[in-house]
Design goal:
The chain is of the alpha+beta class. 42% of the residues lie in helices and 12% in strands. The longest helix is centred in the last third of the chain and has 21 residues, at 632-652. Residues 1-34 form the signal peptide. Belongs to the eukaryotic cobalamin transport proteins family.
Length: 836
Amino acid sequence: MSSPFLYTAGEMRPSHQLRLLGLLLFSLIPSQLCQICEVSRENCSYLNPLVNTMVNANYTKGIQSANILLTFRLVQIQNQRLEQQLTQQIQEDIKKREPEITSGELALAILALGACKNSSEVFIRDAHLVSKLGEKFKAEIENMETHSDNPLTNYYQLSLALLALCLSNGNHSITNVIPYFTPENKNYYFGGQFSVDTGAMAVLALTCVKRRIEKEEIEADIKDLNKTNVYITSLVNKILSAKNDGLFGNIFSTGESMQALFVSSNYYKNKRNCQETLHTVLHNIFQGAFRLPIAAAQILPALMGKTYLDVNKNCSCACSPDKFNISTDKPVPVTPTISPSNISVNYSVQINKIFNSTKVTVRKGSVFLDVMMAAQKQNKAAFCFEMEDSPWGPYITSVQNISANNNDRTYWQLLSNGQPLSQGAGSYVVKNGEYLEIRKEKSNKTIYGPLLSQHQTTSKSLGRNPAVPLAEQPLVNGIQVLMESSVVNSAFPNPSILIAMNLAGAYNLEAQKNLTFKLMDSDTADLTIGQLALTIMALTSSCHDPGNKVSILQRQMENWAPSSLNTDASSFYGPSLAILALCQKHPATTLPIAARFAKSLLANSSPFNVDTGAVVTLALTCMYNKIPIGSEEGYRALFSQVLKNTVENISMRILDDGIIGNIYSTGLAMQALSVTPEPPKKEWNCQQTTDSVLDEIKEGKFHNPMSIAQILPSLKGKTYLDVPHVSCSPGHEVQPTLPSHPSRVPTSASNITVKYTINNQLRGVELHFNETINVSVKGGSVLLVVLEEAQRKNPTFKFETTMTSWGLMVSSINNIAENVNHKTYWQFLSGKTPLN
């Protein structure tokens, strides 16, 4: 098979067969930044921890230090001794390991050695590195053509290689290269979730190609330029959809995402967006998140307004070297006067649904790797593992002698309390009582040893999370503001609203505080089991101790039992919330309660209810992820069976437009489907559901604060399982971007006539009736207005209401009240269709 790639070194020659993308050695491209977001000159000292982390590290692996050298040169950190050391190590490593060096490693080395017009360009030319990179890039593409679109490495490295070729002297046909970078390619996805750092690197590479086409330095059709623009725009939107609290994906993918946005988007023209990103990143710097040199190297260029597209320039920097307080002294270890305390953690290994679990004791401040080593000492057969060094620290390659396999695209995933970690085994500091797990997973992109990008997943669960398009974010912000404004006038302190505020990130801090205090003062005697459980979760998400409310709830659940085998499914709703709240506080003591609850669900024969099923899924997923050591198999099988049945039932209620049950049950159902360890047989189209919900919001269907509280967490990428992990650092009130709707000129509404019927024909009720009345109300009126007008005209239509978290509920009509014991209630219909 002939290859579409032609390569030369030094001299560029035209091809008569193909239009070539000719690329000159580090020729100058204007930066053309759309808008950067950098730390000001006055605040350069905030970056000292990053600089010192890189300066004081011990570099032993040559080519793995390329990230560091590239950053040093881009931001003009003056340390001649270290720069010479890194340059020499990279050059020697290339000579020793040239055949085995991957395309991404070689690309990064070329960028680092050639950055900012320095003498290392001679080595790049004499060693023919660009031609060799071209051959490796060609091999990647050929492997994709013969192995189901899978490159030899991964798309992060493929994008890095294209970027280096674009900035150097590689020659390749643009019409054959661009289609491989379509945003829908499976290689951008990791466990079903868009890989933000991969997308960001692809944006940088495609932007370089785009600029060369626009400068007519390469020959290409207008359709190639249009296609490149479309791909860049789509990838940028995917990056922006992964935004959370100013970060993109996670803290480690944010640096390259910022670079991608600098060169391809106007996102940072909004100063508030810039402030949000810088505030969050600087906070993470102060918290020590960038302890690894490579992590510091990937975030620093963006914070100083630089991108990898600047490597071919004579680099300068707003933060002059004297602005940095660079310490070259190694920290002197201090002998502690008090021995550090020990902590106890739970650790398990899962392979093909077979679990090996243990409890280990380690020193406070230990990392995940320490736990793995302690477990291996206890039982080598069950917990043995192998690892290799990578720029991101130890990379787990084998557990129980089972290796991660590039051919079947499997890898070892680290989890805490059922949630994938964004840090590696050598970085993540464990906590007392934590449930840690390492699990063999299958990826949607090829894993090739230690990735150049972080090898941990950036998704928080199984990759079934909604993505709200950037253009629709103001719509979501708008319903959040509507929900929060209801707190001021509500006499009913609604814990669901506080949970939603805390998970989404509150805009109205005063309303958040007031609602928290109201819930803290609530009398538990007045609360149902479900209301008490929600109150506990609301206070937990506010970082307040719920006090004796937890023990009260536990006693109530110890005495709980369904009234019969066919009791209505909705009667399990409150107890499900109770299991979830107790699981997040005391999973070990909740286990027998949850097991009895699960058995009751299996025995129940009533029709399925989506809301209840969703909360059951959340509760038992929490328990499934926190099964105590030593008793897991029976419990795990029980919970797995109930979860499988429940999730299949939820899946059967997904309508053609993606709505699950009805629009008001969809929010909780989305949470359930995004976290369950037992996904349904029929694949759920999460994006379709999200798009339909957004359409319903535009139609004004979500004006009730409780309905907003149930849908908002999913639209913000959160679930009730995130309640214990909410960060409560003191914040400042942020004004959201709201939808810009044209203001409507008020017009007087004309009256409409409505036929209203009340009907009670139930057996065993003394008063039977079927009465109809015509009432005239203004157009746009709600049902309650019809009831009030009918009552005014005829006492037979008298009604009473009670306040609930969903608003007013009609509890009695014509002196006939709903009866929980008799399972009766008043249902409203339009025609013959029950109302939501």
